[in-house]
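[Automated response] Your request has been received and processed.

Submitted sequence:
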Amino acid sequence: MTGENRRAIGAKQEQRAKEYLEAQGMKILEQNFRCRIGEIDLIGKDQGYLVFVEVKYRSSAKAGHPAEAVNLAKQRKICRTADFYRYCKKISADSRIRYDVLALTERKIIWYKNAFEHIG
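Generated structure:
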């Protein structure tokens, strides 16, 4: 599969994830926030929390469960990017934040709320 096809599939699945979260009541603030540190797929507000969401999609089980791809290194990068986002937006360091993972397959969406703790 070419990089272009992967990007198109990724964009489609991120849109699917966004629509799912909005239907569950989350207000999406940003999609594909990028900076020199990294990228966060979705940033939203949910039940008083500022939520940083990593979206992972797998078309088949051959590559493993989508959530397994959010390893410790990926979590660190997401946390550093989230810190930068909060700094840029002047969001208080003591604001309530959460890190969620949305695992997508062709037939299923699993939402892991508070999937991991902040890594400072």
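Summary generated for your ticket: Residues 50 and 95 are 8 Å apart (CA to CA). The longest strand covers residues 49-57.
If you did not submit this request, please reply to this message.
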